[in-house]
Specification:
A 7-stranded parallel β-sheet has the order 3-2-1-4-5-6-7, sandwiched between helices. A 6-stranded parallel β-sheet has the order 10-9-8-11-12-13, sandwiched between helices. The model has no long low-confidence stretch (mean pLDDT 90). 46% of the residues are buried. It is globular and about 55 Å long. The chain has 2 domains: 188 residues, Rossmann fold (3-Layer(aba) Sandwich), CATH 3.40.50; 154 residues, Rossmann fold (3-Layer(aba) Sandwich), CATH 3.40.50.2000. By secondary structure, the protein is an alpha/beta fold.
Length: 368
């Protein structure tokens, strides 16, 4: 069985890494690793160099522009390019994760060519970005679905997918995350900001400038992680670079490497600040609270250590005051964490191997 798996950025590669290794080591499977998105863009760090598994195909789809028009063109380019990959490789399955536009273009190509898709992390809501629509489109074009929670599983079924093909397997990124936990906290924050792609470029610029204007009020050091290749990412990264250049160097650092390095920093900072999904999934398990700014993560299930605030100086001031209050510190000592992990990659691969697809193009399925 030839299984293609797509990775488009440092973020999803970190989540998929164990599954990629498992497929590559399985005697019954042939790995077809497809690398695309910001991985193959020097502008975003060429993180393809972090991949230590055999690569079957590289697909360049990113257009060097910070507009939604560029995303539309990238999706079209992706459909053309991924079609050639699937024609050449002829995989039995395609595994994708998440809600990126690059993923959508690959899934469109796979669907048209009769390649069944296994989608990880469907059923979520993120009303503050275009990813929300991309995710649901990917769901409707996929055959197997692996959700992070029971609520997300039910939402996929509400979208019309057969219940016997939708599974609550837990979060794939939580396997082995406990080894990064640290009781000792550094006097620093981790700042991760991604575009709210429903907003105009002007409003996006105002939001990141609001955050950057507030940060000097904090005495603690800051780690920054670059934004990925969404519409607006380039101007965010430029503003971060300007901030770093004009501030005290040893008090502010860029981290833009592998997942292991990111988790080590996340585990030891006082809080993660911004609008990253890492604040919702990984941070609580590492004992790190979060200040979640704006609407990008609206709709996702959240746990107690997350403080939501609006993107304004007043909202940030109030959130940081609450973060450092004794009442908040006491309130997060015991809380219900809604996500579960553990051996998720094995469960996903086992399910794919035991699923038979009779004729995907004609719509005939062997429902497990």
């Amino acid at each position: 069985m030839k299984i293609a798996i797509l990775t488009t950025s440092r973020a999803d590669y970190g989540l998929l890494k164990k599954l990629i290794y498992r497929i590559n080591e399985d005697s019954e499977c042939e790995l077809c690793l497809i690398v695309s998105g910001s991985h193959v863009s020097p502008e975003f760090g060429a993180t393809i160099n972090l991949i230590d598994a055999p690569i079957s195909a590289k697909v360049e789809v990113l257009i060097s522009s910070d507009t939604n028009t560029a995303i539309s063109k990238s999706i079209g380019l992706g459909c053309l390019s991924f079609s050639d990959v699937f024609e050449n490789e002829k995989p039995d399955w395609l595994i994708v994760l998440g809600d990126r536009f690059e993923v959508l273009s690959a899934v469109i190509a796979a669907y048209c060519q009769g390649v069944p898709v296994a989608h990880i992390s469907g059923g979520e809501l993120t009303s503050g970005s275009l990813d929300d629509g991309f995710r649901h489109c990917i769901t409707k074009l996929s055959y197997l679905h692996f959700a992070y929670t029971e609520e997300y599983r039910k939402r996929i079924i509400q979208l019309g997918e057969h219940p016997n093909r939708v599974f609550n397997v837990g979060h794939i990124g939580l396997e082995g995350i406990g080894k990064y936990y640290s009781k000792e906290k550094e006097d620093a924050y981790l700042v991760v900001w991604h575009p709210e792609t429903f907003l105009s470029p002007l409003q996006q610029k105002r939001n990141i400038k609001t955050i950057m204007s507030f940060l000097p009020k904090l005495k603690e050091a800051k780690y920054f992680c670059y934004s990925k290749g969404d519409s607006g990412s380039r101007q965010i990264n430029q503003i971060i670079n300007n901030y770093i250049r004009t501030s005290i160097p040893y008090r502010n650092k860029i981290i833009d490497g592998n997942r292991e390095g990111f988790l080590k920093v996340l585990a030891r900072v006082k809080a993660i600040v911004g609008n990253s999904s890492a604040a919702i999934y990984e941070a609580p398990l590492l004992g790190t609270p979060a200040i979640n700014i704006g609407a990008r993560q609206d709709g996702r299930i959240k746990s107690a250590p997350i403080l939501d605030c609006e993107c304004s100086v007043g909202g940030l001031k109030e959130a940081f005051e609450k973060l450092n209050s004794e009442d908040f510190k006491k309130s997060i000592q015991n809380y219900d964490y809604p996500f579960r992990g553990g051996n998720v990659s094995k469960r996903i691969l086992d399910r794919i191997k035991e699923t038979k697809v009779v004729d995907l193009q004609k719509g005939f399925y062997d429902i497990p």
